[in-house]
Amino acid sequence: MKNYTIALLAGDGIGPEIMHEAVKIFRLIEERNDVTFTLIEADFGAAAYFKCGHPFPDETKAICDEADAIIKGPIGLSHEESKKIPIDMQPERGALLPLRRRYNTFANFRPVSLPKALAHFSPLKPEIIGEGIDLVMVRELVGGLYFGDKEVGVNEKGLRYVKETLEYDEEQICRIMHEALRLSMRRKKVLHNIHKSNVLKSSVLWNEVLEEVAVEYPEVEIKHILVDAAATQLCLNPGQFDVMVMENMFGDILSDQGGGILGSLGLMPSACKGPEKSYYEPSHGSAPDIAGQNIANPYSMIGSVAMMLEDSFGMVEESKNVWTAMQSVFADGYSTPDLSKPGSGVKMIKTAEFGDKVVAALRAMPAVV
Ligand code: IPM
Ligand code: MG
């Protein structure tokens, strides 16, 4: 019997509600498989700041250090509420980026996936969606503008100025390219490289390193596309993409667009992989406007569990079962109010009911032997 220790960082806003549903899935996976999970809750985000004075308290760091994997809910407050926290203690700067840096989670995988049966969630026309949307964005997560040196001050003209640095070395680029190319080998063997080499020197190096690394993967066809053009093409013809690789900031923006073409960021789980440890999180924010109402869909959180099962614990088939179970609940006509408007046959249910239905659907599926 295997035992894995998992740190649960519920986070802010809708985080605790959707994490509650993720826990139901872990418990059912234990029942169905030769595995146990030790789930340890830890404070993280704005809630941790107000409770303990720090958004990433030492106790949470210790729990994460000991864990085999980490699952994290969304963090953050509304624009106005954020102002109650000193700028460097705000959960994005004070907790999330330090978490990424601590475990060096350089490879962020964001599936943008919508089976044909769920195509009605998307704002795109059926003829554009075709057989559904199925691509993965691979985002470099610990470099670039997010982590570069920053300078704020007053210049010689007496004007306030700011300087942020976009820095990558070839090793950082090389390792994310290997991740993207390996994923391409397991999928359609087409990799779209997202860059801005007509302006940014960082993109020139990015492209050079890709060409060097790609030699090791001769079967993968590389397609280069400027980031702005990629944004357009995601709307006009998402079916042309399979794996897309990009630097940190481009990945932040394009992955939200990925949520947009699906119809909601609520449909975007993700995996953040480091050399020793990975953590898993929804790609969306904490949605303070709907927090506490039990109406947020737990798809991104349960999808993050599915990604953990596959990537951290090698439970590939059971992971697929979780996806199938989740999608079957939508296919049966159920939805939560955050994703669907009433009418047109949608059976509206709450967060917890959605989780229960996923549990029931998974329970009805044969266990993996
Ligand atoms: C994401 C989020 C974060 C990011 C924020 C919360 C700092 O938007 O994971 O995409 O910008 O990376
Ligand atoms: Mg983002």
Which regions have little confidence, pLDDT < 50, spanning 5+ residues? none
The amount of beta strand, in percent, is: 15-25%
Strand order of the largest sheet: 2-1-3-12-11-4-5-10-8-9
> Briefly, what CATH class of the largest domain?
Alpha Beta
Whole-number tally of structural domains: 2
Give me the strand/helix succession: EHEHHEHHEHEEEHEHEHEHEEHHEEH
| Biggest sheet features | 10 strands, mixed
Number of helices: 13
- The span between the termini is 14 Å
**What's the CATH architecture of the largest domain?**
3-Layer(aba) Sandwich
Question: What integer is the average pLDDT?
Answer: 96
Return Rg in Å.
Answer: 21 Å
- The gross shape turns out to be globular
Question: What is the SS-derived class?
Answer: alpha/beta
How helix-rich are the residues, as a percent range? 40-55%
In this entry the ligands are: 3-isopropylmalic acid, magnesium ion
Q: For the record, what is the CATH homologous superfamily label of the largest domain? A: Isopropylmalate Dehydrogenase
Tell me the total number of β-strands.
14
CATH topology of the largest domain: the name is: Isopropylmalate Dehydrogenase
